[in-house]
Design a protein that fits this description.
Length: about 140
Amino acid sequence: MIYNTEEKTICDESFFEYASKRIIASVDTFDVRLLAEIVNTHNEIGLKDEPLFKAICPRIVKESKDLSPEVMSKCIKAYCKFMIPLKEDAQGFRTMAIVQKGDFIRPSDKPKKMGKKTYDKPVALYPKPQLQGSG
C-alpha cells in the first residue's frame, strides 16, 4: 500500500533499505513491470537508493519492450531526477580506445613554425599605362 505523505520517517527508510537488499539479491526473479513500479515508488517518495537503481537498470533497459511508454517514461524521469544513468552495463573491451599518433617507428612531431609568410605581389606588364593621344 502506497500512501502519500510529505515527510519520511525512520521506519520508512529502514523498511525501504531492507526491501532494497532483498530486491538486489533476487533482481532476476522479479517481473520487469514490478521493478519499474519499485523505481517509480522510490521516485514518488524521493528516496535515492543508488545500489538498487543500478541493480535494476540492466533489466529495465533489456526488457523495455515489455513496458508501456507511460511506465518507461516514469522510469526515465526517476533516473533523471536522481542523476543515475539508465544504460546497459559496459562491456569492457568495447569501451576502451587506444590513441595512436604518427607511424609505428616514431611519434609524430608538432609542425615547426615557418615565420611570417610572404606573398608574391602582382607585377605590371608595362612600366606605365599606355595612353592614346589625341592627335
